[in-house]
Amino acid sequence: MQPAQLEIEHVSVAYNGQPVLCDVTFHVPHGARVAVVGPNGAGKSTLFKVLVGLLPWHGGRILIHGQPLGHHHDCVAYVPQREEVDWRFPLTVSDVVMMGRYGRLGWLKRPTKEDHEVVRRCLEQMRIADLAQRPIQELSGGQQQRVFLARALAQEPHILLMDEPFTAIDITTQETIMAVLDELRAQQVTVLISTHDLSLAAAHFDRVLLLNRRVIGYGTAQEVFTQKQLMEAFGGQLLILGEGAVVIDQCCAPEAQRRSRA
How much is the pLDDT for 1? Predict the structure, then answer.
């Protein structure tokens, strides 16, 4: 068995006294690809923000390579949901991707030749090199998603967290992201992605973390996606159709409901 690169043990988070994550425990092996699945409000985004130091937690511990969270400089990269980003900043695509180098470079130092080469390589990897000088606010949603993944790649992380990266993007961007994930697997970069898409999680991820404020299940998709555990996680948002489970996004109109099969 591979040693755990990321260890989360008995971690809890609360907002204004209301629990959001309760006694969460799971270990991620080095280089694994994990889908974090659960309904809206399950704590998926909260978990990611804790892992990059944006939110505090109480109880338990978080270890990376056996060391406390924060010990490893710039080790964890985070791609937030697009709606959490203020796209009005007058920055070019290249500027945004260069922000991924600031943890290594420092805010008061000028980028080196190496930094510019890393940015160029990441832009090419995400197939957006031709957009380098375009203002970020002029891009499509899929292009913006690629830019923020390129910024995360420029950080050269050991662990990559992506929050709902496949929501409302074009098929070309989805295929590009999946190709990059395959490249990261070869580089032994550990990846955690939150998603509502059960079929995507089952087909492309080594492990699934089924979450609804607490860990409902953790293991392979076959182990986790049982009717009992899916009903426990999704409740009224879940329909069982033959051999599959359908998750209904209640935030959308009926004609535009997003469905995922497992």
Answer: 45
